[in-house]
Structure formats: structure tokens, C-alpha cells
Amino acid sequence: MAKQIIIAIIANAGGVGKTTISTHIAYGLGQKGLSVGLIDLDPQRALDVFCGLPPAQAKESIVEVLAKDFKGKWPMFPAWGHLNIEVCPGHPSMAQIADDLVIRRRGEYTLTDRLTNYPLKHDVVILDCPATLGKICENAIAAATHLLVPIQLEMKSVSGVADLIQWALAIGEDLQLDPAPPILGLVPSLYNHKKAIHRLYLEQLPDVAADLGIPVYPAIRDSAEFKNCSANGEPLQRYRPNHPAAKDFDHIINDVVKLAKKKK
Any idea where the AAA domain is (predicted)? Predict the structure, then answer.
């Protein structure tokens, strides 16, 4: 576990690009020679669709892992034909699991316990979190070594990012995490340079992030090709590798590679 990077991708709203970022980082890391485990913690299971996986039964999903009677065999499936990128699928019944975690003694640490007692083999594990800040996200923060925060360049997201960061820090304090997972950075997503409001918020975001003591990554552009490649169950780097947006994730990927090298 000491050598493993676990990145939780969190946001307090849906549609901000969590799954797009998760899959493209995973594919990029795989191309760099790292092994990656993707865990879909979202009941909407958008990650599984992006990875080209069919709907999973509850017994072959993260639901089985978080169940009280888990026996230790992670349901991991190869993504995109890569031997070094695997996915633990999501399932709609994750909402019920979240309710069950509330009444467990170590409910907030269930995912941590699973990763500790039955560790995955991967260099990097990416947690694609739900948009609701409940027990599942608390589990992700408890298990993570690092956090990544996508943010839309809209007033609601920009104004609410401070609350999200404070919530994540408070969870770290409440759970007495030592160390609490640092935030790798804010990731401006769905950026449209033709929109004046997007350009304005992108200019202001570094000042907002500086007040929070958090770096800002280059923006991930808004492109119809992301919807197209998702519908085909592939990341853009594989679906249209020469598309300019395929390189939008390179800064994040390179930072994670550096973190993984430091851990070895």
C-alpha cells in the first residue's frame, strides 16, 4: 500500500467531467507503462460505459467489495484490451450500500479496509466518485493518497469550490487521517474558449485557487468528441489520438507518473 497512488476524483455536482478525467488519465498512465485500477463508485456507472463494459451484476461490481461478507476477490475487468488497466464496475445499488455504511462501525473506512486487507496490484488506483457528498465520497477520501477536483467554469461551480475543499478537509480531520490526502489540483473542465464567461472564470480561477493553496491544471476543453468516444466505449486518446483534446490530460498524467516514481 505504501507504494500505491490512490486518486479520488471528487465534485459536488454531476456533469463536471469526473468520469472523462478518470478514464483519460487511466489510459494515459497505461500508455506510460503503469498499471491502473479504476473503481466506479458512482451508481450511474458512467465509467463502465466509457470503458466499453456491459452492465455488471451486483456480485461482479464494487457493491460486492463493500458488502459485509466480502471474501477478498475483487471483480476487476480489463479495459480497452489493456492488460495493465482494469475496472471494478459500478452498480445502481450503490445507493443502498451508502445507506448501509451509515450504520456500520467503520462505515467511513470500508473501502480503506478492503484496499488494505485485500490490496490491488496496480501502481495507481483511480476512484470515480458520485456527485453527492455522502458516505461513498467519505470512503474515497479516507482511502485516497491524493484528491483531484474537476470544476466547471460556471458561477455555481467556481463559487462552490471553496465549500467543497473545506468539506474535504473537514472529512480528513473528522476521520483523523494521517496524512490527509493532499489536493493535486483543480481541473477546469468543459472549457469553451468562445464563451466570454468561460474565459473570464478561467482567468480568475488561479486567484481563487491561490487563496485555497491549490494548483490549477490547464483546462480540459469542451468537445463533442468526448461524447462520441464515450458512446464507443473508448477514451479519446484511443478513439481519435490525433485530436487536440486528447492531449489536454497530459499535465495531470505526467504529475501522477512523477508521484508513482517517487513511491517506488
Answer: 6-168
Compute the C-alpha angle 161/163/193, nearest 5°: 10
Angle at 41 between CA 178 and CA 87, to 5 degrees: 100
Beta bridge partners of 87: 38, 77
Pairing outcome for strands 77-78 and 85-88: antiparallel
Write down the H helix ranges in the chain.
18-31, 46-50, 62-66, 94-102, 110-117, 135-143, 155-174, 196-212, 224-231, 236-239, 250-263
38-55 pLDDT, tens digit each:
999 998 888 999 999 988
Q: Is the peptide bond before 241 cis (omega within 30 degrees of 0)?
A: no
In CATH, the architecture of 5-257 is 3-Layer(aba) Sandwich (3.40)
What pLDDT score does 1 carry?
Answer: 42
Three-class SS state of 186? strand
Each residue's pLDDT tens digit, 109-144: 999 999 999 999 999 999 999 988 889 999 999 999
Extents of the domains making up the chain: 5-257
Length of the chain: 264
Which strands make up the sheet holding 124-128, listed edge to edge?
Answer: 77-78, 85-88, 36-40, 124-128, 5-9, 146-152, 183-189
DSSP-based three-state secondary structure for 124? strand
Q: How far apart are CA 65 and CA 224, in angstroms?
A: 35
d(CA 86, CA 79): 5
For residue 161, give the C-alpha cell: 469550490
- Mean pLDDT along residues 216-223: 96
Cα 24 to chain center, whole Å?
10
